[in-house]
Amino acid sequence: MSQAQAPRALSKVPRVTVYFWVIKILTTAMGESTSDYLVHRFNPYVAVIGGFFAFVVAIAIQFSVRMYIPWAYWLAVLMVAVFGTMAADVLHVEFAVPYLASTILFAIALTAVFVAWYRSERTLSIHSITTRRREAFYWAAVLATFAMGTAAGDLAAYTAHLGFLAAGLLFAVVFALPGISYRSFGLNGIFAFWFGYVMTRPLGASFADWTGKSHRAGGINIGDGPVAFVLAVVIVALVGYLSVTGIDRETAASREWQGLEKAAEEASG
Known about the structure:
By secondary structure, the chain is an all-alpha fold.
């Protein structure tokens, strides 16, 4: 695809609306509860291998479509959430890597993805996901954010002894800061987006653990399975609504606005 053609191509990701952030947080919560349910209910090795294959299938579906399709995109995000949680937990449980070390490790991995992405494409804007290579960088970054967010959430809840609820409230505040700074103080939009994106993982996971885990662990003991089921129902309903209404798809007006916004972000970055 030529440079002249790239801006005219259809984006493979949704517009960033309130629905985007709501579903994103719900998928992170479901990823946490689903991962914990599977590895504790079944053989953990089988669960991780199954999670990996489900992740591969979901990503393959997302790459096979030519434009943003809500169910395909959010299925990929959900499978990243499940497998990303498993990958981060394996480091701690099976290899005894401290949460601080794994958080730093995944932060380095995410930085490496961003550096490679920017050197290749000269932008980290999600408004530019119109080529196969940019999409590959995008999903690599998404996977790294999930793994880093998982480790950071566990670091706050366990290592810092905040507990699930306190950690969730802390991450809710931190999640809101870049959006407020973007709207009120002109924070770079690309930085604000990715910072908030990373924070959705520990935010959703903390509340999933708080609702699902036992009283002894600091939760309210609903159970990982029921929490995952309820979240799945809500996510399916919201994605169905987006599929019917198309309100998070690109339009001619939104593409023109995003083009101007992207140019301003790149200039300021």
